[in-house]
Design goal:
The complex is a heterodimer of chains A (99) and B (485). The two termini of chain A are 33 Å apart. With 99 residues, chain A is mainly alpha-helical. Chain B is an alpha/beta fold and 485 residues long. Chain B has one domain: Amidase signature (AS) enzymes, CATH 3.90.1300. Chain B is built from 15 helices and 11 strands. Classes of the chains: A mainly alpha (99), B alpha/beta (485). Chains A and B meet through helix 1 and helix 2 of A and helix 9, helix 10, helix 11, helix 12 and helix 13 of B.
Amino acid sequence: MISKEEILHVAELANLKLKDDEVDGFVSQLGKIVNMEGNLASVDTTNIEPTYNMGDTSTTFREDKGIHTQTREQMFENVPESEDNLIKVPTIVAKGEDE
Amino acid sequence: MNYLNETIDSLHKKLADKELTSKELTEQTLAGIKETDKDISAFITVNDKATEVAQKVDEDGIKGPLSGIPIAIKDNIVSNGIKTTAASKILYNFMPVYSATVLEKLESAGAINIGKTNMDEFAMGSSTETSFFGNTHNPWNLDSVPGGSSGGSAAAVASGEVVAALGTDTGGSIRQPAAFNGIFGIKPTYGRVSRWGIIAFASSLDQVGVMTKRVEDSATVLSTMAGHDYHDSTSSEKEVPDYRANLNKDMNGVKIAIPKEFWHEGADPEVIQQVNNAIDAYKKMGATVEEVSLPTLKHAVEVYYVLASSEASSNLQRYDGVRYGFRAKDVKNIKDLFVNSRSEGFGDEVKRRIMLGTFALSAGAYDAYFKKAAQVRTIFIQEMNEVLDKYDLIMGPSTTSAAFKIGAKIDDPLAMYMNDILTIPANLAGLPAASVPAGLANGMPVGLQIMAKPFNEQAIFNAAYALQEENKFYEKIPTALKGED
C-alpha cells in the first residue's frame, strides 16, 4: 500500500498539485498499481545486470561541429509571454522571502 | 476519396498515368475525411495547406511510389508549421518549427501530410479515451474504442480516410489498435527508425511504425522512413532493405514458436479461435509450429509499468509552462507557474504515470522498483532471445479481447494496463512485431501478432503477407461504414 502522505510527497517531487478530492482516488489507484508492481520482488535477480537502455549500442560519432537548426525568432514562436526578446516569467525570489 | 479498395500501388499508377493529379487526390482525401470524420473523429488537425503541397508535387512530377500520396500522421510526431499536441492540453497550441525525421523522409519521397491523428494523451492509454480532444470511434462499431494509443491513425486507415498512417508504439500502441480495427500495423526493431521529433514517452521503448490495410503498403512506407539519423544516436546504421521488393509469401520450412502463456485463461475464446485458425493456416502453408514457454511473461506488465512510467516522469519534466505550451494564469512565483501549468495541463492518466514513475525513482523505492524492473527486463530479454535462437517467428494473439466499449475500462486503470500484456514483450526486448488481421470475433476484428529477430522485419512482412493473401481480410468493409457508399 501507499499512504496519503507518500502520495502528497511524490506529487511534490513531480511538481504536481492534487486537488483535495483527487487525493483519495490517487491513493487507492496508485496503491493497487504499486501492489501489482510489488510482485517483482518474487523474481530472483541475484547477479542480473539491469537493462536501462536499448539499441544497437555501439557509440556513434559525429564531427565536433555546431549545426544551426532553429533561429531565435523561430524558438520564440511558442513562448507564451515575452518582453524585450526574453522569456518572461513571474518572480523567482520574492522580496523579503528567503526560501 | 475512399481508400478502402486502394493500395499505394493502385494510387501510384493513377498518378503516374495522369488519370489523377496529386492535387485532385488531396482535395478528394480532405473531402472524404470531412465526411467520414463526422462519425469517426480520427483527426485532431487537418492540414489545410495539403493541397498547396500536392500542387508542388504535381509540378515537380510524380516520382517514387509515395510521390503525391496523402498520409496521416499521429499527433505526437512533430510537423513543421502544423499544430502538434500529443492530444494534451499542455501542448494544445504547440506549433513545431521543425519536422520529425520520419516525416521529413516521407515528405522528401513526395508523401503529403494530410493531418494529425487523435491518440491517448502523450500515448499513455489503450483506448484513445485519454485524449484532450475527445474520443475516436471504431469503424466496426461506433460505440467501441479504436484501441490506443494510435487509435486515430488506426481508425483513419480502417475507415478508408487514408491509405496509410504513422503511429508510435511504446507498449503496443500500434499493434493493439491495428488489431481492433482490422488492419495491419508494424512496430519495427528498436533503433530501426529515428525517434528525432517524436514527443518522448519512454525512450528505451518508443518506436515509430506504420499502419495500413495492406501489408505491402506498410513495407513501402517503412523502407522509406527507416535508417540511421545523426539526430538520434540510438538509430541503427544497419542498411535498410527494400521490404516491398523482397516480399515472399513462401512459408515452407519457417519455424514458428507459440508461447503457451499467450493463450491465457482470461482471453476471449472467440478471439483465440480466430488466432488458432490463422496458425493452422501457416501449418497448411508448410511452416512448423511448436509450443514454447516464456515463464517471465507473467511479470511483463509489472516491468513495463515501472520502467515506462519512470522514463515518462523524467521525459515529461520539460513541460513547465515557460517556453511553450499551456501556461497557467494568476501565479505568484515561478514554482506556482510550474506546478499550476502541469496540474492544469496534464490529464488524469498522464498524472498517474508521472506519479508512478516519480515514486519508482524516489529514494527508498529506486532499488525495489526501478532497478528491480530493469533486472527482470534482462531476464525476460534472455527468454525471448533463447526462443528466437531456435525459431524464426513468435506468434500469438495481439490482444486478449476484441475492441471494448467506450467507457468500459476508463475508470479502472489496472484493468486498462492488463490490456497490454501481449504487446509489451516486443517493446521490452526491442523486437520487431506486427499485428495482421486474422478474422472476426462476434463481428469485431481480431489480430494475429507476429514477432521476429531484431532487424528481421522482412520475416514479419513475409508471414503477414502470406496470411493476408490467404484470408483476404482487406476485402471486408467495416460494419459501421456499410450503407454509406
